[in-house]
């Protein structure tokens, strides 16, 4: 499935539900694309360089094919790929890789640009920033190990043993 949004004349378009592209492409130009829903299983094309304004919108198994500036909180599920030469500029916003395996990968050399932004990886302890991805600028990269992971269980075991005098 392929969908084209053209927000000519200074307008904008918004995705509030789920679009399963089934290998197709969502393309937007002429104005920003608002994302409060989910784009999944395809390519997000931004030939005009318009912004992606996200309010906890989700990219699920998406390939980015154009340099994209984002605002707000953008969720990445499964794998988010960037084609060679693509820059994802999250500015002071957030990119949250929130499922296992949460991965940000490049199909060549790609960049995540931040300006006091947050790159958050909480994929059940299996978060990956892949080969060919450069993270640059200022901000925070946060890796969160979720409860139930081996490290967490070992820490609880150690606390129980100390309480028994061992």
Summarize the structure.
The protein has one helix at 150-163, and strands at 3-6, 13-15, 18-20, 25-29, 33-35, 38-45, 52-64, 68-83, 87-91, 94-97, 102-107, 110-121, 127-129, 133-143. The chain has 166 residues and is mainly β.
The proportion of residues in beta strands is: over 45%
Q: How many domain regions?
A: 1
End-to-end separation: 62 Å
State the secondary-structure class.
mainly beta
Determine the fraction of residues in helical runs and give it as a percent range. under 10%
Residue windows where pLDDT falls under 50 for at least 5 positions:
148-162
What's the overall average pLDDT, rounded?
81
Number of strands: 14
Largest sheet: 14 strands, parallel
**Alpha plus pi helix count:** 1
Cα Rg: 18 Å
Q: Can you tell me the overall shape?
A: globular
SSE order in H/E notation?
A: EEEEEEEEEEEEEEH
Set down the secondary structure blueprint.
Blueprint: E1 3-6, E2 13-15, E3 18-20, E4 25-29, E5 33-35, E6 38-45, E7 52-64, E8 68-83, E9 87-91, E10 94-97, E11 102-107, E12 110-121, E13 127-129, E14 133-143, H1 150-163
Key features of this structure:
single chain, 166 residues, mainly beta, 14-stranded parallel sheet, 1 helix, 14 strands, 58% strand
What does this structure look like?
The structure is a single chain. The protein has 166 residues and is mostly beta strands. The chain has one domain (3-163). Helices cover 8% and strands 58% of the residues. It has one helix and 14 strands; from the N terminus they run ββββββββββββββα. The chain has one helix at 150-163; strands at residues 3-6, 13-15, 18-20, 25-29, 33-35, 38-45, 52-64, 68-83, 87-91, 94-97, 102-107, 110-121, 127-129, 133-143. Strands 1, 2, 3, 4, 5, 6, 7, 8, 9, 10, 11, 12, 13 and 14 form a 14-stranded parallel sheet that branches. It is globular and about 40 Å long. The N and C termini lie far apart (62 Å).
């Amino acid at each position: 499935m392929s969908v084209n949004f053209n927000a000519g004349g200074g307008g904008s378009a918004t995705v509030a539900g789920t679009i399963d592209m089934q290998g197709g492409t969502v393309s937007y130009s002429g104005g920003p694309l608002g994302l409060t829903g989910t784009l999944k299983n395809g390519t997000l094309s931004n030939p005009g360089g318009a912004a992606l304004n996200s309010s906890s919108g989700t990219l699920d198994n998406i390939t980015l094919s154009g340099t994209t500036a984002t605002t707000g909180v953008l969720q990445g599920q499964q794998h988010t790929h960037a084609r060679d030469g693509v820059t994802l500029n999250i500015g002071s916003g957030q990119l949250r890789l929130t499922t296992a395996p949460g991965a940000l990968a490049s199909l060549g050399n790609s960049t995540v640009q931040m300006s006091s932004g947050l790159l958050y990886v909480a994929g059940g302890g299996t978060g990956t920033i892949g080969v060919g991805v450069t993270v640059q600028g200022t901000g925070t990269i946060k890796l969160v190990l979720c409860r139930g992971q081996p490290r967490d269980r070992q820490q609880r075991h150690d606390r129980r043993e100390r309480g028994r005098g061992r």
